[in-house]
Amino acid sequence: MFIALTFTLMSCGDDDYTVDAAYEKAEITNVTLYGRNEAVMSDKTQIDSEAGAITVSLKADADITDLKMVATISAGATLTPGMAVGFQDYSSPRTYTVTSPGGTVVKQWTITVAPATN
Length: 118
What we know:
Blueprint: H1 2-10, E1 28-34, E2 42-48, E3 53-58, E4 68-73, E5 78-80, E6 94-99, E7 106-114
Parallel strand pairs: 3-7
Antiparallel strand pairs: 1-4, 2-3, 5-6, 6-7
């Protein structure tokens, strides 16, 4: 029985795992910015996937120097730096990296936040 269990566990290694090429994406599909009061501070979001550029315009009462980003990314992908970094200053563009689930696609994204125009 011990030998059967050993072979079973050996056959469950990471080597058997492959990611379908159709899922190898490194996209950001949405960005929402929040203020300290947990209110949505982003007004409009424009995403240029080909250029890896996102422009977010803010609502009138938003503080561009103290925002938390929540992004929607491709299934299974990872975002660096992650969203757990918390509140940040978006007065200058910030660069994020999205890596596909299998690591074959790595894409740089630049997020530019524009203050509200009165």
